[in-house]
Each structure stands twice: as C-alpha cells, then as structure tokens.
Amino acid sequence: MILACFGLCATAGSAAADSTETVLHRFAGRQGGDGAFGGYESPTYGGLVADGLGNFYGTTLYGDNDTGNPTRCDDGNQPFACGTAFELSPPSAPGALWTETIIYSFGHSNRTDGTLPTGGLAIRDGVLYGSTMDSQRVGYGTIFQLTPPLRPGDPWTQTILHNFGRPHGTGPDGTVPNGSVVMDAAGNIYGTTQDGGDYGYGTVWELSPPSRPGNAWKEQILYSFGTASDDGHTPRGGVILDDSGNLYGTTYVGARGYGDLYELSPSGTGTWTHKLLYSFTGLSDGGQPVGSLAFNGPDIYGAGAGGVFQFSAGVSTVINPIQASAGVIFDTAGNLYGTAFTQGGFNLGSVFELSPSGTPGTWTLTTLYSFAGGLDGANPQSGVVFGQGADLFGLTNAGGISDCVAPVYGGCGVVFQIVN
Fold it and tell me: Is residue 365 within 8 Å of 354, Cβ to Cβ?
C-alpha cells in the first residue's frame, strides 16, 4: 500500500518560507504489506542512496520477513522480523504516487542470512552493497551484495560477501559492522566495525573482489583500534575516501575521552599506516562524533554531540552547536545539509542548512523543515541525499502511520523530500 500527502505534508510541520516537505512513502509495517507478521519497518542510520535514474534505495532495521514463519529478531517483547532492503521509484506522471518495492527480506535464507541491516548502502552499476549488524551463521554481522534481476519483476539475488567474527590470517576479525560502506574505483569495499579486532575495540576493514566471478571476496583488516596507547576506539560511522585512496574516519571514544579523527594511508606493500589527526577534547570542538565525514575543499566536516564541526589546519572548530543525527553533505555552492534527531520547532527533528556567511568562520543556520511527529514523520536518524536536482531526500525513524505496529513507537517512519 502506497500513501501520499496530496499537498498536505508541508502543513504538518514547519519549514522555511522557500522549503516544503512531501512524504513519498509511509512505512506501514504489517498494516501495509511492507512489514509483516508482527514485524515493523523502521529506517536506520544508513539513509538513502540514489541510482542516478531517480530511484532511491535503503534499508529498514526490522520488517517484512517474507516467509510464513518469520525469523525472530526480537528485543524480548515482540517477534520482529529481521529487516528489509527497499526501492522507491518515482511516479510516471507528476503528482502520481511513488512506488515502494521490497527487494529483499532478511533473515530466512536457510539460516545463513544476515539480519538487522544498519549502515547505508553503496551502489555500483545497479548492484547494491551493505552490512547487517547480526547474522544467523556466526552472529557478528555480514557484508552483502544485492544484484538486480535481468527481467523486471523477478527477485533480486542476495550474496553474502563476508561473515564477521571468524579468525583470519592476520588475527581476530572485526565484529558488528557499523556505518555506511564505500567503494573505490577498483571495486574494493571499505567500512568499520564497532567491536572486534586484535584488541576488541573495533576495526577498519577492506573487502576485495575476486579475480574470477564466483570466487570468494578477500577481507583485510586495515587497522585494529587499541594498537597504540593514545588510540581511539569504537567507531560509530563509516569511512570516506580522498582522491589519493586515503581513508578518513572517526572514533566515538578517544585518547581524551571524546573521540578521534584519523587517517589511514596505503603503503603500496599491502599495509596501511594509521595517523591520528585530532583528538577531541570535549563537546566544544565537536566531540563524540557519529556518522561519516564529508570533504569541502581541503577541510573535513562532521557531526558530534557538540555540534557540526570543521577540521582545518589541524584544529577542529564547532561551526554550529546543532546536534546532527548523522553525517553531513555539501552542495556545489558550499552549503552544508543534515538532519537533527530532536530539536526543530517541535523538538522532533529537523532538516537544516548551514551556509557560510560573509565573515570568515561564521555560518548561518536555516531550518528547512521541522518534523511535527504526525503523518509528516519524526526523529530522523540518518542524513539526507540529493536527488537529480537540488531537492533533499531522507528517512525518519518515527512518525507516519501511528498504529503501524505499536503506538509506543509513534509510527514506522517515512521517506521524505524537501523541495529546497
């Protein structure tokens, strides 16, 4: 069942004068067929990814297990199904409905499947790549691949590329992947785990594609946190790549207690060199970072408990104290965009813009939309992405259909568009 706003969504919350919200899809759980058998759909930290043709893809932490006897991925109270990957396709005519399609339901493939997808997806040539925080075979998470069918309407094919938690040639594996995955030009996949590794404090890993199709992908642990006495640990976001193939990321806990910003550089001999770029001293410089980072020129930007921060010339500075839910993005004019889990006019989350002002080092905050917690959604826990133009697209964790499964959750979330 697909629901639309019919022009009413922007009135449910508050927005800047030149921005409006349109709800493209409300997750309906068992009420709507996109979360069934007592499960429900709740968008997760990963957000959306676009394919360049106007379609968006994402995951839900719980949801439609498409067997008659769904696997339990429960919290001790309800038999939640184990999550989905979905596609959202634009209408054929302006003003018509968007179409949501469950392209994969996790947790039923002869107990070898991953469960509870958490991080954001990556897309390459129409193929999707992502992670789950749990798995039925080992229990410590997976990296998966979803391949589209050759004929429209046929099922997508899921392939598990790696099961975390197994010892390998260089030591203990990482466990519980966290954050979005990224790919380089050669098709290698990079990401983080929040636990595991040589010291149990998390890892940065690489998966390399096989030389022959059908063979196994090769995992390499690029770094195990806890190696040095002043090392950070527990990454709560993925990594980003620069043009030279260096990786950048953050840890939630650091040498000074508030997290670290680090760089990993390939040596050319198969090993990687870790460099501590900055150790956060407290919330005043953007400590306890979450989500992935973003480049804008030579500077690095991110989000933490202290607000949105800018790392430039060896120093981290909070450019605005708004507590972003996840990573941030830039447009070509240098404006920054993100979401806040709470805050906004109703304290139920917002989509915001930070624009550089004429005074160096100062930024102007504009709230593009404040969620009201009704049909318009509430509490976005992932960032936003651009579509084919300047509009922003994203997910909320709550709001939408209030009785989708249990009223305590305040709705199963929505997919939204901000016309900017």
Answer: yes
Residues in the chain: 420
Torsions phi, psi of 409, nearest 5?
-85, -5
Cβ within 8 Å of residue 62, ≥6 positions away: 35, 39, 40, 41, 42, 73, 80, 81, 82, 83, 116
Write down the pLDDT at residue 5: 36
Look at residues 265, 192, 205 and name the one whose alpha carbon lies nearest to residue 233.
Answer: 192
Q: At a CB cut-off of 8 Å and minimum separation 6, what does 83 contact?
A: 59, 60, 61, 62, 63, 73, 105, 106, 107, 115, 116, 117, 132
Q: Which residue has the tokens 């839910």?
A: 325
Q: What is the pLDDT of residues 38-47, one digit of tens each?
A: 344 666 667 8
**208: closest CA among 146, 270, 262?**
270
CB 324 within 8 A of CB 339: yes
- With a CB cutoff of 8 Å and minimum separation 6, the contacts of 242 are 248, 295
For the chain, which residues make up each domain, given as ranges?
Answer: 9-419
What residues contact residue 252 under an 8 Å CB cut-off, 6+ apart?
232, 233, 234, 235, 236, 259, 288, 289, 290
Task: Work out whether strand 189-196 and strand 203-208 pair parallel, antiparallel, or are unpaired.
Answer: antiparallel
How far apart, in whole angstroms, are the C-alpha atoms of residue 227 and residue 354?
37
Q: Please give the CATH topology (third level) of the domain spanning 9-419.
A: Neuraminidase (2.120.10)
Phi, psi of 9 (to 5 degrees): -65, -35
Cα 375–380–386 angle (5° rounding)?
100
Residue type, 78: Q
Q: How far apart are CA 269 and CA 24, in angstroms?
A: 48
Residue 22 has a CB neighbour count (10 Å cut-off) of 20
List strands edge to edge, sheet with 203-208. 174-183, 189-196, 203-208, 218-224
Tens of pLDDT, residue by residue over 337-359, are 999 988 888 889 999 999 998 78
How far apart, in whole angstroms, are the C-alpha atoms of residue 102 and residue 166?
Answer: 30
